[in-house]
Design goal:
The chain is mainly β and about 130 residues long. The chain has one helix spanning about 1-20; strands spanning about 25-30, 35, 40-50, 55-65, 70-80, 85-90, 100-110, 115-120, 125. Helices cover about 15% and strands about 50% of the residues.
Length: about 130
């Protein structure tokens, strides 16, 4: 009987611990090193586990003249359940996007915590379809 009672207590504690953990957010596309042409339409895809209601904000990050990584701004927002956002590459309301190396970051708030995912290595935004070496 004691063993069964301890199992119930342990299961309850595990459930409380897991319930308080923030969801896992994963950026699936673009993959690191992708080449996207300015003006093309590309799909940004993510996954969130477990399911709940939230808005995902999609942001573009790039380098300034001092080679510092800075936010270029929000390029879109979407209900997280959509799992994707169609972006016309280069559309960023707060800054001009020139060819170069960029990062996509997606995020949402969960219980007052910011949950973030994104590229570890940059994507390459080009003015043509050819890759530059």
């Amino acid at each position: 009987m004691k063993k069964a009672a301890w199992m119930v207590v342990l299961c309850c504690l595990l459930g409380v611990t897991l319930a308080g953990a923030p969801p896992t957010l994963t950026l699936l596309t673009p993959q690191d090193g992708a080449y996207w042409k300015i003006g093309s339409r590309q799909t940004i895809i993510w996954n969130v586990v477990p399911n709940f209601d939230a808005t995902v904000y999609i942001t573009l990050w790039g380098y300034n003249d001092a080679n510092q990584l800075i936010p270029f701004g929000v390029i879109g927002e979407r209900a997280y359940k959509a799992g994707n956002f169609l972006w016309q590459v280069g559309d960023c309301p707060s800054r001009k996007v020139n060819p170069g190396n960029y990062f996509i970051r997606i995020w949402f708030f969960y219980s007052g915590q910011k949950v973030v995912a994104g590229n570890r290595n940059p994507i390459h935004i080009t003015s043509n379809w050819l890759r530059r070496n």
